């Protein structure tokens, strides 16, 4: 039985998909972990069935499932940050800020602490973005108006739609990846 019925095994490498069972959210990572961890150094058993009996799942990293589609940084930048924040947060502003948005790349670097000094009015000691944890991300706390923040809720004079807040939350929770 082939695991890929679209292409014959002579033209594309086959991978044993959970011993030909359907992969689902509960079993796919275990199957992949066991397939990789029981692989012989020379890969000679790569196209054989997964050896679940020889697989130690106690050493497997915790699996974090993501619902729905991944939110990309470029979509957060284009649809949330740029239209709502860039007019005040740029190198030409007279505002006192350390959050500069002169380009997509610079914005990502500033948010993730790759460059810049982080939030200036931050009494919590949080970075703009803490990967995988919106509740420890100063940017998220500022746009939601969390009572623990210093200063005004952002954006000044308005509020983001809930869908924009949800997208920012999802992007951070999914690891704040640069994509």
Question: Any overview of this molecule?
Answer:
By secondary structure, the protein is mainly α. It contains five helices and no strands. It has helices spanning 28-37, 73-85, 104-111, 138-144, 162-173. Helix 2 (73-85) crosses helix 5. The radius of gyration is 22 Å and the shape is elongated. Mean pLDDT is 81; it is low at 1-5.
So what's the overall shape? elongated
Provide mean pLDDT, rounded.
81
Total strands: 0
Q: Termini, distance in Å?
A: 37 Å
Radius of gyration: 22 Å
Overall structural class, as computed from helix and strand content, comes to mainly alpha
What share of residues are in beta strands? Answer: under 5%
Query: Main β-sheet: number of strands, strand sense, barrel status?
Result: none
Uncertain parts: 1-5
The helix count comes to 5
Which range best describes the helical content: under 10%, 10-25%, 25-40%, 40-55%, 55-70% or over 70%? 25-40%
How do the helices and strands follow one another from N- to C-terminus?
HHHHH
What would you call the quaternary organization? single chain
């Amino acid at each position: 039985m082939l695991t890929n019925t679209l292409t014959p095994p002579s033209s594309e490498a086959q991978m044993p998909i959970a011993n030909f069972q359907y992969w689902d959210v509960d079993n796919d990572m275990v199957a992949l972990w066991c397939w990789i961890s029981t692989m012989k150094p020379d890969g000679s058993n790569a196209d054989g069935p997964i050896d679940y009996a020889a697989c130690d799942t106690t050493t497997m990293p915790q699996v974090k499932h993501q619902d729905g589609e991944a939110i990309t940084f470029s979509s957060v930048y284009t649809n949330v940050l740029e239209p709502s924040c860039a007019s005040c947060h740029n190198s030409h502003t007279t505002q006192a800020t350390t959050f500069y948005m002169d380009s997509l790349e610079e914005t990502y670097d500033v948010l993730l602490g790759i460059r810049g000094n982080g939030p200036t009015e931050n009494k919590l000691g949080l970075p703009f973005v803490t990967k995988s944890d919106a509740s420890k991300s100063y940017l998220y706390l500022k746009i939601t108006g969390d009572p623990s923040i210093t200063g005004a809720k952002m954006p000044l004079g308005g509020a983001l739609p809930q869908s924009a807040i949800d997208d920012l939350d999802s992007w951070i929770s999914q690891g704040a990846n640069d994509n």
